[in-house]
Amino acid sequence: MSCSIPQELIEQCIAFHGHSCPGLSIGIRAAEYAQARLNQDGDAVLVCVTETDMCGVDAIQFLTDCTVGKGNMIHRDYGKMAFSFFDRRTGAGVRLLLRPEARQDIDAALAPRQRAIRAGQATAEDEAAAAALRAQLQDRLMTLPLEELFAVQSLEDGLPRPAAILASLVCAACGEQTMESRTRRFGGQTLCIPCFNAREQKI
């Protein structure tokens, strides 16, 4: 079953991200699932917790209106291809984890060619093969049934708290205003994280 998002909207999403790629396709399909599962009436206030910072996050921001700036997109740097979505009205949530088998063995064929490209040692044949494999993977990601693409876990709790406006404190070292929750105490002084890291020798 192909992606149900209109092609025109997908093209707009690609333009927002800057290019079309397999990673963006994963985010498009995750957004598709979230909208179908949690936003059936169109009135959901969606929150996304992403466990990766890869290309697909742009698709989720564009298609679901979950953004870092609004506080309803939260990045947890776990390095997993996983996205949790919540409806803030009801607390209902779902976690999507990309199934390894969704990529088949395409990655194994693509990886050595990508390494050669990054090292500047790729031949024209390598580059053409890599482009064909990326297109093949992207097509697969955009056409697989969602239940074959993602392992799905229903979430009964874990809805993040709404974003809060916190006080700003002045860093004693650089003098810059810093959100209170991002300051550190060192030697009796309030420091921003970069200044704290510069003084704390164990980091």
From TrEMBL:
The keyword Zinc applies. GO terms for molecular function: zinc ion binding. Residues 16-150 form the Formylmethanofuran dehydrogenase subunit E domain. Coiled coil: none annotated. InterPro entries: FmdE, FmdEsu_dom, tRNA_methyltr_O, Znf_DskA_TraR. Residues 171-201 form the Zinc finger DksA/TraR C4-type domain. The keyword Cytoplasm does not apply. It holds the Pfam family FmdE. Transmembrane segments: none annotated. Keywords: Metal-binding, Zinc, Zinc-finger. This is Putative formylmethanofuran dehydrogenase subunit E.
